[in-house]
Amino acid sequence: MSIDQIAPAALRLPPRERALLAASLWESVEDPYLLAADRSDEDAITLALARDSELESGTVNPLSHEELMTRLRR
Can you tell me the distance from the alpha carbon of 49 to that of 44, in angstroms, rounded to the nearest whole number? Predict the structure, then answer.
């Protein structure tokens, strides 16, 4: 089953049930901040500056939110 099949049905749920579903789904995802917490502030700043340089120089191309979500759904 894909998100394209599940989402329309989920969005028809009453607000309370949508909130419970969202909380349940969020709890099932690994902590997104766990890896970032392992990184020192200095390392995080260095990484952010490197990513900014890549974007500014054109080495990498930014993704729109829509493109990111499309890729994540694949």
Answer: 9
